[in-house]
Amino acid sequence: MKFTCCIKRLFSITGWKRFFLCFLTVWIAVNFAQSAFTEIHSDEAYYYIYGENLAWGYFDHPPMVGLMTYVSSLFFSGNLAVRFATVLLQFFTLVLIWRLIDEKAPDTGKTVLFAIVSSSTVMFQAYGFITAPDVPLLFFTALFLLAYRKFLQHESWRHTLMLSLSMSGMIYSKYHAFLVIGFIVLSNLRILTGSRFWLAVIFTAVLLIPHVYWQVSMDFPSFKYHLSDRSASFRWSYFLEYLPNQLAVFNPFTLAAAAYIIVKYRPREIFYRGLHSLVAGIVAFFWIMSFRGHVEPHWTVACTIPMIVMVYRYSLRDRRLMKYVKYCILPSISLIYTARILLVADVLPERLNFYGKARRCKAIETVAGNLPAVFTGSFQNPSNYHFFTGKESTVLSAIDTRRTQFDILQKELGYHGKPVLVCAAIPGKSQEYCVDGIRFHAFRTESFQSVNRLEINYELPGNSIRIGDTLHIEFEIYNPSGFTVDFHHPEFPVSLKAVYITDRKRFEFRNCILLQDVATIPANARIKSTLKTAVPDLAANDCRFSLSLDNTVCCAQNSKLTYIKFERTR
Question: Does residue 209 sit in the same domain as residue 85?
């Protein structure tokens, strides 16, 4: 009886409510279809591994995206095992944005305007079916802004708790949450004088204790990666590509509308002043960050929420802006949906990473069989292989590639002494395979050995090194693994390399001569020795120095990086 009443009530809805329900229904249906029929991106396969290994943190990101893929995998297999939670979460994000707008007199025309503006931003649509940390960040950003608006109206315990939950949810989603919180506070410094806001901050800190403990226990891998490892020397290309990338992320017409609003209007309301601060502050912040390295276009995606609210609100007040929405923003939506259709049709370039991966992984599987597949290079290859085949895989991080979650999982330790397929082009070892037109290099080994977990401690004779000198360096190697490492292994012999890294990320490897031979390093043992190596002329004034173990597959990152300055003989 109750169910029948609900159905009758649903069909009795008229006007703007019916349109809004239809809009939400179509939105979620399209995203479900897109999620099911568009091949997952390599990053999504990586986050799928997060979900298989639930933790309070991951190498690259906080834990929320891992929880999303875990929940998705409870209900579905295949693509929806990664994307189900994403589709639902964006549905609720749209509902929160509508509540955030706080329309006092809604009608069908205003609801249509909301549908147009919210559909016009490229990455917001993309994060309706692509799983990434930005998906929960958008949801909790909308919840945070809603909580902030209510908190400004009435600093009740309920709104304080809501503010705390939304802030912790943002931080558990992506560290860019600190920018969202920071620019809101900068737009309203008076909030710092209120005790309830500080209680919300304290509650947030308490909720973050598990993640902070994880970071401390792992020696802060995420912070080191984002704050240090990703930095690079200045390049004009990083600076000049930033704005064109932002046009692609937000839709040039929608971003232009937001810029027009920020320049023309000076809101008196504290809440809308915060929205202006968010959009202008985050876009400006990451443009400044381009001076220290490449900025990913989607890092500014949190601006989408305030941007939608601003364009909607001011379009109702500004006739020229409303006309602009009708004749510029609305037609651009057709281009976005055309791109989405092309993704399903598999006609866009493979470099976009939305198809071709399944075929390649299946081709490698025909050679590997049930053997684990060991890759070199990036995390994408083992992630894709595991997702599309269900078989074991990992990657050996080298000193000239970045570390990833695989360095925390350390799967290669479970392959020691066992047969694996090494998927890499190693001269003298690998052979080229061609399966169904897919070409790749690999070789099978009967007794795998890795040196990635060995740790080297050393001290240079000084930080000023003369070009052409021969360095004598005392070092110690610690083997924390549960097996013996054989330096004279028949398939994976180990050698020591001196590594010189210049500002332009150029890596120079030089052989080292050991003055005392190292044959084996037993499990949990330490050995000491001395090496000598010649200092090359790198046509640079300084560089970073490291010692690396090479097991013929790659040179691992085994030791700290030391800054050295070159002296040249005149």
Answer: yes
Q: Assess if residue 486 is contained within a domain.
A: yes
Q: Are residues 379 and 301 in the same domain?
A: no
Amino acid at 43: D
Q: Is residue 495 located within the same domain as residue 362?
A: no
- pTM summary value: 0.92
What is the number of H-type helices and E-type strands within the chain? 23, 16
Q: Enter the DSSP assignment of 549.
A: E
Among the candidates 322, 345, 368, a domain finishes at 345
Amino acid identity for residue 535 in this structure: V
Q: Are 79 and 161 in the same domain?
A: yes
The count of domains in the chain is 3
4 part of a folded domain: no
Q: Is residue 108 part of a domain?
A: yes
Other CB atoms within 10 Å distance of the CB of residue 450: 25
* Residue 161 belongs to some domain of the structure: yes
Integer CA distances (angstroms), 250 to 39, 215, 246, 303, 570, in order: 23, 33, 6, 9, 56
- Residue 382 domain boundaries: 357-445
* Max Cα-Cα span within the chain: 96
Phi/psi for 523 (5° steps) reads -60, 135
- Is a pLDDT exceeding 70 seen at residue 9? no
Residue 204's CB: how many other CB atoms inside 10 A? 19
Which structure tokens are listed for 69? 């893929």
Q: How far apart are CA 169 and CA 165, in angstroms?
A: 6
For the segment 206-246, what is each residue's pLDDT rounded down to a tens digit?
Answer: 999 999 999 999 989 888 887 776 666 778 888 889 999 99
Q: Are residues 45 and 108 in the same domain?
A: yes
CA atoms of 502 and 543, how far apart (whole Å): 5
Are the C-beta atoms of residues 432 and 441 closer than 8 Å to each other? yes
The sheet carrying 542-550 orders its strands as 464-466, 562-567, 542-550, 495-501, 507-511
